[in-house]
Each structure stands twice: as structure tokens, then as C-alpha cells.
């Protein structure tokens, strides 16, 4: 890899945790007869992956802060830098034996995301980006798509579940968007939705109710690939507000107008 020392640390950590998750993923199908058993197994896999990531990342940069899905937040001696980590994005997919889940690692400096790594271990696709260095998948430079017509655009979102308060708004947005585009996908891993916008596989993505570790790494991937990223509610912080909209540059304004209503 030709990134900075920090990117190389992040990639090494993601690959090590990814090997552990991939091994666990091969076992998960054997547990499908018991929902509780499978759920407990995935929880252990998640915690094991986070432990590996924490050992690798904080071992290499012990003064940096830490924010992760399972382990919560820990201040570092260096108050300007922190790791933002999701050890297993797409847990429900993992639980059901669907090979669409990822590890997400971001580095924040003075409130700005300056580096990100997303590792799809099931497909051996490692996405990474660093401020000013572009976005990459393995050794391939990534570019947001060049589609210019909404009717050609393929978009992604996360449809709320289990009575989430954001469901009515999402259904209204889908009703406005679906008649004017080529399709909407709901694949269940926000980090990979963002990575796919960076790779030009999706032309845009929006979602509410996200956590910082869901989106942090993906934001810099999209930006470094030439895409546009904004909070759904203008003037808010995406990481703190948990609502994001992004797309390639030609489609962004029209897409955002539809989503924002």
C-alpha cells in the first residue's frame, strides 16, 4: 500500500480482524437452527473483532482516543485525534449468512475525518481513503459515477425496521424517488453503501438514524472519489446528527431536492 503510516496501521488492523470474522462467518450457518444461539455467537464474533482492532490501533497509537460500537468512548492523551470503529457493520446480514458486512475504521483529527478504511472480508475488497490522497479499493483508484440523468441512477438507503421513528419519512422519500430513478437498493451495511458510491456502483445514498461509526470512514471515501456529501438537514454535523445524503456531482442537487422534499 502507498498510504501514510496511519493508513497502513488501519489496513493491518482491518485485515487481522477480518480474518477472525471470516472464520466465524463460515461457522454461522451451523447455528441458524437457534436464533438465540446464533445471536450470541455473532455478539462474541463482534466483540472479538473489536478487541483485535483495539489492540492493533491503540497499540500502535496509544495516545489517540477511541469511539466504537461495542466498547463506547475513551478519551486519549491526544485530545485532537481519535479512532472511530465499527467492528462489524451489517450484523444482521452476518447473522443470516449473507456475505455483505464490513469492518469500518476512521481517523478523526480536530473534528474532521482524515482517513478511512472499510474492509469487506467476505469479498476481499478493502476500501481506503486519506485526505488529499484519493480513494482506493485494493490497488484500484475509485471514482464516483459519471451518470448525469436521474432515471439512470441507482440509489441506496437503509429502510428503518422494528418500529423506528424514521420509517414514515423514509417511505415518503422512497415514494418520491422510485418513479424517477432506475432503482433503490437496501443492502444493510451503511459503510458499504458509502463505499459503493465512491466506487461508482451506486450513484447516491441517503439514510437517517446512523451512528458515527456507521458513516465516518465512508464519508472520506466518497469525498476523495469526487462525490458530494452533506447532512440531510443542512447545517448539521453528519457524524453527530446521523443523517447523510451523498451522490456523484451531476446528480447531487436533483437527488437532494427529492429527498429533502
UniProtKB/TrEMBL annotation:
The keyword Hydrolase applies. GO terms for molecular function: inositol monophosphate 1-phosphatase activity; metal ion binding. It comes from Poseidonocella sedimentorum. Mg(2+) binds at residues 69, 86, 88-89, 214. One of its GO terms (biological process) is signal transduction. InterPro entries: IMPase, Inositol_monoP_metal-BS, Inositol_monophosphatase-like, Inositol_monophosphatase_CS, Inositol_monophosphatase_SuhB. It holds the Pfam family Inositol_P. The keyword Magnesium applies. This is Inositol-1-monophosphatase.
Amino acid at each position: 500500500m502507498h498510504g501514510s503510516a496511519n493508513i497502513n496501521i488501519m489496513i493491518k488492523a482491518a485485515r487481522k480482524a477480518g480474518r477472525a470474522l471470516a472464520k466465524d462467518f463460515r461457522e454461522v450457518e451451523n447455528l441458524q437452527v437457534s436464533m438465540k444461539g446464533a445471536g450470541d455467537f455473532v455478539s462474541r464474533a463482534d466483540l472479538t473483532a473489536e478487541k483485535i482492532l483495539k489492540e492493533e490501533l491503540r497499540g500502535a497509537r496509544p495516545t489517540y482516543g477511541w469511539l466504537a460500537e461495542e466498547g463506547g468512548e475513551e478519551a486519549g492523551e491526544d485530545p485532537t485525534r481519535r479512532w472511530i470503529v465499527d467492528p462489524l457493520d451489517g450484523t444482521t446480514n452476518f447473522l443470516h449468512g449473507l456475505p455483505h458486512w464490513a469492518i469500518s475504521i476512521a481517523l478523526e483529527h480536530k473534528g474532521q475525518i482524515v482517513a478511512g478504511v472499510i474492509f469487506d472480508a467476505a469479498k476481499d475488497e478493502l476500501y481506503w481513503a486519506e485526505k488529499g490522497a484519493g480513494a482506493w479499493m485494493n490497488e484500484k483508484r475509485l471514482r464516483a459515477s459519471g451518470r448525469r440523468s436521474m432515471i439512470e441512477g441507482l440509489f441506496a438507503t437503509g429502510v428503518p425496521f422494528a418500529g423506528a421513528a424514521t420509517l414514515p419519512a423514509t417511505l415518503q422519500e422512497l415514494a418520491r424517488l422510485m418513479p424517477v430513478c432506475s432503482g433503490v437498493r437496501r443492502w444493510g451495511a451503511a459503510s458499504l453503501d458509502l463505499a459503493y458510491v465512491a466506487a461508482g456502483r451506486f450513484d447516491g445514498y441517503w439514510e437517517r438514524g446512523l451512528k458515527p461509526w456507521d458513516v465516518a470512514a465512508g464519508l472520506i471515501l466518497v469525498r476523495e472519489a469526487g462525490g458530494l456529501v452533506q447532512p440531510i438537514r443542512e447545517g448539521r454535523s453528519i457524524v453527530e446528527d446521523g443523517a447523510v445524503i451523498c451522490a456523484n456531482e451531476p446528480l447531487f442537487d436533483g437527488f437532494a431536492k427529492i429527498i429533502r422534499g
